[in-house]
Amino acid sequence: MKVAAYQAPLTACADAQVISLIRQQVDRCEALGVEILCCPEALLGGLADYVDPPERAAIDTSVGGLDRLLAPLASGRVTVVVGFTERGGGGYLYNAAAVFSRGEVLGIYRKMHIPDDPLFYEKFYFTPGDLGFRAWQTRYGKIGVLICWDQWYPEGARLTALQGAEILFYPTAIAWHPKEKSEYGTNQHSAWETIQRSHAVANGCYVAVVNRIGLEKPAGGDGLEFWGQSFVAGTSGQILAKASADKEEILLVPVDLGKVEVTRTHWPFFRDRRIDAYGDLTRRLID
To answer: At 50, is the secondary structure helix, strand, or coil?
Structure first.
């Protein structure tokens, strides 16, 4: 099968226009024989965190708003993973992603780990996810979705993989602070790439990471330089393909899901886990 990563800039367009842009990529993927297309974090609705409080309307999923909005993405072949800002009941906002196939939302994932970093003040806006870690059976294979800050946590990857996920998708929006790039940039990027490749190794699955690109400047600041470099890692953590640092593009990668079972058989990390000894993982600290 083929998976595709749509490495895109954040757009200030209305959501209907963003849907039109994604639809162009869906049509392109349809022609190329792609089965699953993943878009970056919060491509719909925009990130509410680092510029202003959310002025663009979040999507109310309780009344079928998401199904109607995503309807133009319906395709005979392509399943789409798209990040969006979700408005839940009680005024809650979630940083979420939807798995959409043939006109139907198969499921929603709500970002579990919420960061609070310079210019990423997500704790001020977003409620931590309450749907848990999830995997969905698509027509092509079983996939899991986690979002950006989740990518640093091996627990999330493991719990998703244990549900049978053969590919972990990470819609992402990660960037350098321009003033820090020369000193910290290389190590930051290396750590980001290494931790996610390690999820592929530890869980014997594919990992697909879809980042944003572009320099975005909030008023009165240096902004954020999104570093792109979306990639897909194989079941041994090897990078199968990587996108550029600064170009809008589709990264197209063939994957063989049969290698997941082979890898998990010959590197039986699941089998050899000491589940009887891991209880302290549920504690904040161990005395």
So the answer is: coil
Among 220, 115, 225, which Cα is nearest to 181's? 225
Q: What is the pTM of this model?
A: 0.95
Kindly report the length of the chain: 287
3-state secondary structure 250-283: EEEEECCCHHHHHHHHHCCCCCCCCHHHCHHHHC
Q: Give the DSSP per-residue string, 59-116.
A: EEGGGTHHHHHHGGG--SS-EEEEEEEEE-GGG-EEEEEEEEETTEEEEEEE-SS---
Torsion-angle region of 106 (φ positive above 0: left; ψ -120 to 50: alpha; else: beta) = alpha
Q: pLDDT below 50 — which residues of the chain?
A: 48-55
| Vertex 50 angle, CA 80 and 172, to 5° | 30
Neighbour-count burial of 121, counting CB atoms closer than 10 A to its CB (0-12 exposed, 13-18 middle, 19+ buried): middle
Q: Please report the pLDDT score of residue 51 as a whole number.
A: 43
- Dist CA 106 CA 103 (whole Å): 9
Q: Where are the domains of the chain?
A: 2-282
- Of 50, 58, 172, the C-alpha closest to 113 is 172
Q: Which residues pair with 175 in a beta bridge?
A: 226
29 token code pair: 């993927």
- Segment 184-205, tens digit of pLDDT: 999 999 999 999 999 999 999 9
Query: Which amino acid is it at 267?
Result: W
CA dist list (Å): 154 to 2, 17, 159, 233, 262: 26, 36, 9, 16, 21
Nearest Cα residue to 260 out of 165, 119, 135: 165
Instruction: State the fold for domain 2-282.
Output: Nitrilase/N-carbamoyl-D-aminoacid amidohydrolase (3.60.110)
